[in-house]
Amino acid sequence: MPSIAVIGASSDRAKFGNKCVRAYLQKGWDVFPVNPKEATVEGQPVSKSILDVPVEPIDRVSIYLPPAVGIKVLDEIAKTNVGEVWFNPGADAPEVLARARELGLKVVAANQDLLRVQRRQQFHQLLLLLLLARLQLLELLL
């Protein structure tokens, strides 16, 4: 099974750090919650640091931390064998993403990637509209 470390996992079921744990568990992933203040999350033992996660490699890391805290854990993440590092909304400040890239992490930033897709879709819609307008002009001229 693929593995994920959820940094900022929470036992509070209303928080996204908990919803993430539940969602990956339901999909059959090996889930490793990380939070220095929790003992268990959704029945899973919690590691105090990503350095304490008992498996390597870790296929994915998902971060639910404010930028001031998130930037402090990047060096630890870089010391582990991880695949993608997902920065969820609120964790994806430009300085955090820049530092993660400096460390050579495979960054996935939800807000930025979604915005890029939306812009690409808008660009393609605009091109289509321009093409249709041009075709209509050609029809008028012929």
Characteristic key phrases:
5-stranded parallel beta sheet; alpha/beta; 142 residues; single chain; two-stranded antiparallel sheet; 21% strand; Rossmann fold
Question: What is the compact description of this entry?
Answer:
This protein has 142 residues and is of the alpha/beta class. It has one domain: NAD(P)-binding Rossmann-like Domain (Rossmann fold), CATH 3.40.50.720. It has helices spanning 16-26, 67-78, 94-102, 110-141, and strands spanning 3-7, 30-34, 40-41, 44-45, 58-63, 82-87, 106-109.
Q: How does this model look, in words?
A:
With 142 residues, the chain is α/β, with parallel strands linked by helices. The strands form 2 sheets. A 5-stranded parallel β-sheet has the order 2-1-5-6-7, with helices on both faces. A two-stranded antiparallel ribbon has the order 3-4. The longest helix has 32 residues. It is elongated. The termini are far apart.
Tell me the strand order in the biggest sheet. 2-1-5-6-7
Total strand segments: 7
**Oligomeric nature of the chains:** single chain
Radius of gyration: 20 Å
> How widely separated are the two ends?
62 Å
What is the residue-averaged pLDDT? 87
Total helical elements = 4
Q: What is the CATH architecture term?
A: 3-Layer(aba) Sandwich
Q: Point out poorly predicted stretches.
A: none
Q: Major sheet: size, sense and barrel closure?
A: 5 strands, parallel
CATH superfamily: NAD(P)-binding Rossmann-like Domain
The best one-word shape is: elongated
CATH topology: Rossmann fold
Helix content: 40-55%
Number of domains: 1
Order of helices and strands: EHEEEEHEHEH
Q: Strand percentage, roughly? A: 15-25%
